[in-house]
Amino acid sequence: MESSVCPFCHLSVPSSELQWHANSHFEDEDKEANDMELGNQIQIASSSGSTDVVSISSLIGLQTRSNFYHVKDGLISLLRNCLELEARHNSSVTILSGYVDHFQSLPSVDVGWGCGWRNIQMLSSHLLAHRKEARKVLFGESGFVPDIAFLQRWLEIAWESGFDPPGAQHFNCKIYGTNHRIGTTECASLFRSFSLRARVVDFGPKESELFYLSVPGSTLGQPVKQRNAVRVSGPMDKYVHRQQGLIKGRHFCHSLHNGKSDNSKGKSEGPQVLIDWVWNYFSDKGLTISGSSQVVVSDRAPLYFQHDGHSRTIIGIQVKHQKNGTNQFNLLILDPSDGTVALERSLKTNVGWQKLIKRGVHTLKKPQYQLCYIDPGIASGEELNELKTINSIFFEL
Fold it and tell me: Which of 46, 287, 332, 379 holds its CA 20 to 30 A away from the CA of 317?
């Protein structure tokens, strides 16, 4: 496919899309100015610190769709085709989430700080496409993924509604119009404010266990005891605590054993614990691996995947059966720092996509990781009130 470079953002796009892409920059400038003015009106309307029905109604009407490069037929469909071709030459099983739009960080918009918001957008695109109950509650039933500025306002409303008080306090309940970096906790808070059952899972060394909390009622992982933990407002604060005591800080964003696992028996060590958890999540412990190669689409949503320095979106997992009887695992990941056009091109030509999407166990070198996943269904009543406290379930690496 012939491509050209945009003279404004220097992004490589298909030549047939160049005019549309270039014109969108001017449209975005006008839209951004209007959004900022109207967004300021919303902030003024809710300056009392309480969630105002009128301000929410205004936000629903004012919010705008996030601009992104749309891949015809979707990246997941293209990836599935490549994986099926690959499976003809090896004994492997791959489990994928359903449809996901890729939202890349843009040089003139959010490079260096926006990865968390982009992952929220990717996860939102899946929920809107696959879960009717989520479509009815997300973003005022708009049916689309808002741009970062309006996601920021939705997060402020979540804080005003009482979700994650420590996080709200850390940001002083203000994040709209800023380039503050966010993480898993903010992702969970935003989705929980729409009554979705967003859960947080932590992976780290035993000595860091006191920095984590368990999630009562979580559908995944082994039950763990409740712990009195240091209250942290963001997913990366615990990393700063480890190095600097209790000084608060934020992170910086830069560019299965026969198919099954049982973490409770202690058979896995180190990063394999995380890999096994992801496998169990996508397979829902109900997939039996046979000797034949296959690619399966799960009903599970993608995972928000955080570590110290960056966050990405896990869209699936692959296991290859080696001749020596061992299994080789690869996480399948969409990275906001990658260009959507490059991803599309590599998948359509079946060239180079592995380097962009696959991440083996050997790449998991960070001491701690954090995931956010969303259970099916809508919370209400006391359950919704309990979701205002952001806790996590802990697994030792």
Answer: 379
